[in-house]
Sequence to fold (464 residues):
Amino acid sequence: MNSPTSHFVPPRRMGVYDPIHQISMWEENFRSNVSLSASTLLIDDAEIKFDNQSEYASHGIPGTSKQYDQEANRLADKIQRRLAQNREAARKSRLRKKAYVQQLESCRVKLMQLEQEVDHAKQQGLHIGGTGLGSNSLGFAASLNSGITNFEMEYGRWLEERNRHTLALRNALSSHMGDVELGELVDGTMNHYFKLFGMKSAAAKADAFYVMSGMWKSSAERFFFWIGGFRPSEILKILVPRIETMTEQQRSDISNLGKSCQQAEDALSQGMDKLQQMVSESVAAGQLEEQTNTPNMSTAMERLAALVSFVNQETLLQMSRILTKRQAARWLLALGEYFQRLQALSSFWANRPPKPAECLIP
Amino acid sequence: MEKVTRLASEKGVVIFTKSSCCLCYAVNILFQEIGVSPVVHEIDQDPDGREMEKALMRLGCNAPVPAVFIGGKLMGSTNEIMSMHLSGSLTQLLKPYQTSLS
Fold:
C-alpha cells in the first residue's frame, strides 16, 4: 500500500483480544481512502471542466488549429491521467477490501474457537479467574455460573465495605471514641463478617468446589486456606497478642476457646479428608453425580462448607463475648489490617517484574 | 421411634450416623478428641433405618444425621454441637462420660 494516509497496524501489535477495535480502524481507513480518491476525482473533474471551457473559448477564434491540437492533447493527457488514477484507486480499493475481509474471517474463526472453549468449560463446570485485590485477573472475572458471578461481584463490594469498617475502627480508636459508639461500630463490623459467611453458604449451593478452593481470594490468602476459609485458631493465635491488656480470666477463656477451635478444626479436617476420599473413589469408579440418583456428594460438600462458615462465625461470637468493646475493636482492626496486608502482598508479588530466564543461551 | 429412644438411652453418649456421611465422621472424631467414646449407630446399615430416619426428623432434626444424644436427650446436630463446644459447654456436659482425659 503506497497511500500516505493509510496506517496499517498488523494484528499482532493490536493484541488478539481487540478484534472489534481493529475492524473499526479498518473501516475508517477504508472510508477515508475512498473519500480521498473521490476528492482526487473531483479535482480532476474541475480541471476537465475548466479545460472544456477554455477549449470552447478557443473554439471561437478562427485560425488557431495548433492551439486546438495542443488543447486536445492536454485534454487527452488529462483523461489518460484520470483513467490511470481511477485504475490505481480501484486497485487499492480492491486490496483494502481483501485485507478487510481476511481480517473479518480470522476474527470469525477466533470467535468460534472461543465459543467452543466456553462450551467445553461449561460442561466441565469450570470458572475462569476470580476477583480479589491481589489477583491480576481484572478483566477476566468471567464465570459460567450466575450464582458464582453474583458472589464475586458481591464479594468485591463486601471487601470495600470491610476496608471502610477497618478505617472507621482505626479512626475511632485513635480519637478515643466513647464506648457506646465504639460498641456499635464493633457490632457493625461483626455483622459484616457474618454477612460474608451467609454469602459463602449461598455460593456453596451454586458451586461447592469453588467455595472449597477459595478462588475469589487473593493468592497470598489462598496460601493459608483451610476448607473454604481461614483456620479460626490461627486467627486467634496471631491476633490476640495485639490486644494489649487482658485480665487473667480473659486469657484463660481465650486459651480455652483456642483449644476448642483446634479440636473442632481437627475434626472438620478429618471429615474433609473422608469427603475427598469419597469423591475421589466416586470419580475413579466413574460414578458421577448425574448418573446416580442420590446427590450425596454436592450435599455433603455444601454442608461441610456451611459448617466451616458456622465455626468461623461462632469463634467471632465467642471472642466478642470474652472481650470488652474496646478490646474487640482493637482485635477487629488487627484482623482487617492483616487481611489487607495479605492482599497487598499478593498484589506486590503479582506485579513484580519477571525474573530473567536462566540459561536460555547454552 | 421406640427403637431410637431406646438406643439413645442405652449409653451416655449416642450418635446416629450414616456410613457415608463425612459430617457424622467429623462429629465422632470431635468427641474422641474430647476423650469420649460415643456409641455410634449407623442407620443406613440398620434394617429399620428408614423408620429411624423419620423418627429423628420428627424429633426436630433438620438433617437426620448426625444426631447426638447425651444422657438420653437430643442435643442436636453439627451446628449445635460445634456451638456448644466453642462456648465450652459441651466439655462440661460430657465430663461424666469421659473415658480418657483430653
Chain B has one domain: 1-95. The interface with chain A takes residues 20-23, 25-27, 29-30, 33-34, 63, 78-79, 82-83, 85-88, 91 of chain B (CB under 8 Å).
